[in-house]
């Protein structure tokens, strides 16, 4: 017991030490950021969004305010030829926000900058930059004002005039910069409830917050799940309630209930086709007719009772859990079966040509005597 407690204590100590090493100081963060100013992940999502919108509204006659994030970060043309001196830095609000004063030195001159930093997760990001030597507003405000000026000159660049991109939620989450401020159409499961209103491609994965919702607030408080198609503007800066979401959809113009699509389509397939082309059906839902043999260390399906060589059959993976008890007796009979096919699993001793798992339908077609036919996981006839 003592040895176990000592081992547990050492594990806790190691975890604490690792956490301490991962927690960077403000000075280390500023050095990291100015050491790789081109890395977009060094910038808070709000500032990245302002830069992307400024570039989106630029044209041949109206250039973006800054060519790159690095140019904007140092207010210079050559971000590779600078050095940074940190004058002072302090954090506040639960170590989530910070302010730092730095001197940015170039070859011929230097200027004093005030940095606003944000730590949404485990490391500091640049949220805004202000040049103390310049009467102009901060970087974020300059970008925003310049974007609005471009839109007033060329209103056709406004989001409302864009074509709608039909895109999956997974694609938006994987490439937020590419779709930021664009009009999108997404389909998914909308979950609404108290302090919750989001759309998901998969409820087990991240979703997108739905902003500027048109349905009355009392309706959105009721816990509901609906398959919906939503059209609006994707904004990677929207984080929803308690900043839980990695993006959101605003200015919603379409919010329509649709029939849910089946998670996976079942493919009817012949035994010969499955044997000859297993790659075509790997990890797909299939429906297959065949002859099942059950016995000691044997649970497999074959084309017929005259073709029962192990290499020409498919192992039944989750046999015990999803096949009714009355159909688990030793022997052989014809069945119609639905499940997921896996070409890389080969059953007992690796002798079968593949494996069928997640069995959702197991129907005996020609039964041996004294066996009651049961369909769809246990419904007696």
UniProtKB/TrEMBL annotation:
<protein>
    <recommendedName>
        <fullName>DUF4431 domain-containing protein</fullName>
    </recommendedName>
</protein>
<feature type="signal peptide">
    <location>
        <begin position="1"/>
        <end position="22"/>
    </location>
</feature>
<keyword id="KW-0732">Signal</keyword>
């Amino acid at each position: 017991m003592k040895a176990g407690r000592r081992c547990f204590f050492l594990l806790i100590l190691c975890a604490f030490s690792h956490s301490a090493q991962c927690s960077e100081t403000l000075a280390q963060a500023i050095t990291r950021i100015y050491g790789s100013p081109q890395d977009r992940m060094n910038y808070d999502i709000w500032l990245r969004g302002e830069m992307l919108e400024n570039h989106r509204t630029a044209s041949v006659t109206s250039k973006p305010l800054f060519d790159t994030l690095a140019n904007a970060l140092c207010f210079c043309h050559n971000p590779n030829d600078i050095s940074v001196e940190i004058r002072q830095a302090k954090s506040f609000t639960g170590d989530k926000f910070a302010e730092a004063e730095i001197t940015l030195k170039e070859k011929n001159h230097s200027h004093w900058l005030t940095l606003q930093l944000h730590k949404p997760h485990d490391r500091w990001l640049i949220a805004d930059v202000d040049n103390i030597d310049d009467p102009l507003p901060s970087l974020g405000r300059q970008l925003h004002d310049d974007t609005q000026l471009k839109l007033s000159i060329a209103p056709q660049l406004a989001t409302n005039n864009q074509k709608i991109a039909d895109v999956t939620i997974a694609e938006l989450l994987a490439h937020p910069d590419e779709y930021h401020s664009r009009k999108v159409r997404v389909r998914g499961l909308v979950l609404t409830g108290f302090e919750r209103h989001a759309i998901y491609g998969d409820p087990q994965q991240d979703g997108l917050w739905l902003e500027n919702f048109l349905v009355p607030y009392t309706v959105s408080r009721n816990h509901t799940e609906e398959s919906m198609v939503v059209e609006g503007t994707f904004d990677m800066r929207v984080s929803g309630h308690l900043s839980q979401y990695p993006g959101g959809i605003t200015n919603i113009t379409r919010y329509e209930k649709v029939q849910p699509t089946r998670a996976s389509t079942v493919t009817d397939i012949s035994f010969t086709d499955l044997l000859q082309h297993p790659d075509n059906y790997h990890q797909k839902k299939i429906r297959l007719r065949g002859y099942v043999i059950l016995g000691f260390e044997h649970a497999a399906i074959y084309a017929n009772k005259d073709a029962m060589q192990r290499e020409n059959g498919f192992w039944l993976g989750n046999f015990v859990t999803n096949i009714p008890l009355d159909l688990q007796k030793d022997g052989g009979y014809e069945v119609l079966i639905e499940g997921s096919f896996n070409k890389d699993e080969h059953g007992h001793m690796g002798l079968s040509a593949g494996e069928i798992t997640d069995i959702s339908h197991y129907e005996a077609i020609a039964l041996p005597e004294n066996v009651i036919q049961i369909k769809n996981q246990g419904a007696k006839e």
